[in-house]
Design brief:
The protein is of the alpha/beta class and 224 residues long. The protein contains 4 helices and 14 strands.
């Protein structure tokens, strides 16, 4: 019997990176999504773009390799690779708004069954402006999400309708959580892959929207 543990952030990042197609320009949002740059498929040419102006950077830097002048949008040190360019902030967002980003990977507070994304503010809490998440959500050709399946209190983040303020409506196509991989279709959430050791009923019990379980559902894939 498979061991029963929620998926790690590294496993989610690895799986999301499998979806990147050859030639894609990929933007990685702050938080969990930045891990995706560590999982490069050598047979594919992927260009990572960052809101703060890096284009075509490499994986996160390990201790001892940090360059204080090279950080991603989350302030993490990254490795330069041949062909890397540095742009100003305005040009970085011009690329996003002009539709040159093939996919953005974002964190979220909630994702709804119709693809609505809520990731910029929690209802009832004071906070700043919406920031670059809105530009990414509406400017990128595809939006993928990485997030914990539930909050610390156990409330579901995959929901029928978002209770949190919406960043962009109907944009999310794929969600990786600690319990599986979910595709958003016109009929709702489809459980494509499930964390080892879990049953669809257990995942459904932790989810705030009805899940469609197809006959070809499989165990969550990674390259580990």
């Amino acid at each position: 019997m498979a061991s029963r543990e929620p998926l790690s952030r590294q496993a989610m990042a690895d799986r999301i990176a499998m979806e990147f197609e050859d030639g894609w320009v990929v933007n990685l949002g702050v938080g969990m999504p930045t891990l995706c740059s560590n999982f490069v498929h050598p047979e594919r040419e992927i260009t990572y773009q960052s809101e703060n102006g890096l284009v075509n950077y490499g994986p996160l830097a390990v201790e001892g390799e940090e360059d204080p002048n090279l950080v991603n949008a989350g302030g993490q040190y990254v490795i330069p690779i041949p062909g890397m360019a540095v742009l100003d902030h305005a040009d970085a967002f011009a690329l996003i708004r002009a539709g040159y980003v093939d996919v953005t990977v974002l964190g979220a507070y909630e994702v709804a069954a119709n693809g609505d994304l809520a990731n910029w503010r929690l209802a009832g809490r004071k906070g700043g402006g919406i920031g670059g998440a809105m530009d990414l959500a509406v400017g990128a050709r595809n939006v993928f999400v990485m997030m914990e399946h539930t909050t610390r209190e156990g409330a579901p983040r995959i929901v029928e309708r978002c209770a949190q303020p919406i960043t962009a409506p109907g944009v999310v196509k794929l969600v990786a959580t600690t319990l599986g991989l979910f595709e958003i279709t016109p009929d709702g959430f489809v459980l494509r892959e499930i964390a080892p050791g879990y049953t669809p009923d257990e995942v459904q019990a932790a989810t705030g929207a009805k899940l469609i379980v197809p006959p070809d559902m499989r165990e969550f894939r990674t390259r580990e």
